[in-house]
Each structure stands twice: as structure tokens, then as C-alpha cells.
From TrEMBL:
The gene is trpS. GO terms for biological process: tryptophanyl-tRNA aminoacylation. A motif ('KMSKS' region) lies at residues 193-197. It is an enzyme of class 6 (ligase). It is found in: Cytoplasm. A motif ('HIGH' region) lies at residues 10-18. Keywords: Aminoacyl-tRNA synthetase, ATP-binding, Cytoplasm, Ligase, Nucleotide-binding, Protein biosynthesis. L-tryptophan binds at D133. Catalyzes the attachment of tryptophan to tRNA(Trp). PANTHER family: TRYPTOPHAN--TRNA LIGASE, MITOCHONDRIAL (PTHR43766:SF1). Pfam families: tRNA-synt_1b (PF00579). Its EC number is 6.1.1.2. This is Tryptophan--tRNA ligase.
Amino acid sequence: KKVIFSGMQATGIITLGNYIGALKNWVSLHEQYNCLFSVVDMHSITVRHNPAELRKRSRDLLTLYIAAGLDPEKNIIYYQSHVPAHAELAWILNCYTYMGELNRMTQYKEKSQKHEDNINAGLFTYPILMAADILLYQTDVVPVGNDQKQHLELARDIATRFNNIYGDVFKIPEPYFGKVGARVMSLQDPTKKMSKSDENTNAFISLLDEPDVIMKKVKRAVTDSDREIRYSEDKAGVKNLIDIYSAMTGMGIESAVANFEGKGYGDLKKEVGEAIVEGLRPLQTRFKELSADKEYINQVIKNNGEKASYLANKTLRKVKKKIGYPE
Ligand code: ATP
Ligand code: MG
């Protein structure tokens, strides 16, 4: 079986964007592949955070993975910080990555504008840690949203460079982008991607939002002054809602558009809101049940963390030997 690695940060409760762009795809892949799904808590500290919140959100995220349908018996669902090999390999790869390469990363540019008071080195080297995450497990495929495309390219470049020097150490990973709605946009500014760390909570729908909150946020979504429901780039707000509708109902874009023919923005928002509420209902119910079962979650954290460590250390040992660390 081929290996899949993917992860999410616990910088907030994950959003509908994370669900449609990533988690939902993971669920469709987790039977065919050997999958590792990480809560990448080491990435989360690249922006200033609250420790108690990070702890709680990390656990909620891991629980959400399972609630969404990922199976911790068949996949490895774990905390990145429980596997020190991530940090060790990241350091090594630091020395095989050029400043110029990191300078070109658009996420760094965006995030450093947003967090002007805290442009730390971790924010800059974030893509190297991500490369380490992926390369440690000899990953074949990385399912990510479009926003991570550039980082994945860099991981491939780093791996190729390393292999050219030391022989075949790393598998070169391939990206996997979901079909529909690979990029869900902000409800408040549909030219920006939906992001769980957005300070405006109306901009995103969190997977744990109550139905009335979901309806309200969709109702407030920014569209345009026009009235026509059309699927087109120049109508970013409407297009985004149709994309979400299509992803949540499984309906193709054309039939989704046909469904809204002759209807107004009010109807559109109501139906999209309902599709989200219904689509998330089973996940939300399961999340509550799982959260109550502390023992079970603790045991997943421990077992799965050990499995991940075992695999990661196999690659790390090989790397250390290749670069000449004394035995
Ligand atoms: P942050 O603002 O903290 O970076 P984020 O919402 O971008 O949060 P990440 O943890 O960085 O979330 O990304 C987790 C996964 O979700 C990645 O695979 C990423 O590609 C995907 N993803 C993030 N935002 C979106 C989006 N708006 N649409 C589709 N996929 C997304
Ligand atoms: Mg992100």
C-alpha cells in the first residue's frame, strides 16, 4: 500500500475549508492507503498562541479526525510533538534548504504581514518542518488544499537535492488535490481563502459551529450587488457558496447551478446553510460521543504516537548515517 501523510494545525477549530479541502478527502482515501494524519502542533507555535487553548484544540482536532470517519486502527492519527524525529529531521533539512527558496513562499509573506509584531524564524522555516513531516514517512501522496502547493513543491526539491547527494534516501512525494472546492474562500472576503486563524469569526464556519450559527454566518456572507446566481470568477462570493453547496451535497457544479435557477440570494444562502448543517450533523454528533470517552482517546494518542515514532525513526536513522553523524 502507498503511504499518505497529511496534517492540520490546531491554530483554531478547523473550518469548512479544512474539511472540504482536506479532511473530507482523507476520509475517501483512508482505506486504500497507509495513512498518517497528524495534528501538527509544532507548526501551531509559529504564531503567538495561548497554551491552554493549544492543548484543548489539539485534542479536539485529533478527536475531529476520528469523528469525521478516520479509523485509528487502520491509520496513524497522532500529535506531531510526540514524535521528536520531526524536529530532528527539520534541523537537518534546514541545512539543505536555501534562504532564496524560503523567501519565495507566499504563505510566509502573507503570514508575516498579518503578524508583523512576530515575524519569527519558525514562521520562515515552517516549510522545512513540513518537508520533514512528509519525508520522514517515505510518503507517496500528500493530500492538501491548493494553498499548500508551493510548500509541497519545496519538499520535493529538498528531497531531490538530498537524494542527489546521498543516494535514494527519501521517496519524492506527489500532491493530491481534491476535485471540487479545493479552495474554500472566506465568507467575508471571497478573494481570500477561508482560514481558521482569521480574527473575524464570521469569515469561516467552524466544524463545531451550532446549526443556528452556521445559518447566520452564511446569511451574512458577502456576495455582490447583483441579483443573478451565476457561477463565474467575477462573482467570487456566489461562486464560493455554490462550490460549498456542491461539496456538501455531492452534486456537480452544473446541477447545483440549475437548482438555483430563478432563485434569489436569500434562497441560495438558506439552501447552502442547510446543506452545511446537514452535512456536518453526523460528524458533530460523533464528536460529542468521542469527547466523552477520555480513555479511548488517550489510548489512541499513545498507541498511534508509538507507531508513528517507529516509522519516523527508521528514516531518521538512515539520514543520520548518510550525513555522517557518529554512531
Ligand atoms: P491557518 O490560518 O492557521 O494557517 P488553515 O485554515 O490554513 O489555518 P492549515 O492547518 O494551515 O489550516 O491547513 C490544513 C489543511 O487544510 C491543509 O491541507 C490545507 O491545504 C487545507 N486548507 C486550509 N484552508 C483551506 C481552504 N480555505 N480551502 C481548502 N483547503 C484548505
Ligand atoms: Mg494554513
